[in-house]
Amino acid sequence: MSHPMPTAFPDRLPRRPTASPPSTAAPLHRYHHVHLVLRQRLFEGYYGDGGMLPSERMLAEEFDVARVTLRSAMAALARDGLVVRQQGRGTVALPQQRAEGPATPTRDAFEQLFASVMDMGLRTKARVLSYGLVEAAQEVRDAMQLEAPAQVLRIVRVRSQGDRPVSFATAFVPARLAARIRRRDLATQPLLALLAKQGVRIERADEVISATHADIDAAEALQVPVASALLRVRRLILDANGEPVELFDGLFRPEGYQYHLTTSRDPMRTRIHVAIGSV
Question: Does residue 23 have a pLDDT over 50?
Answer without folding.
Answer: no
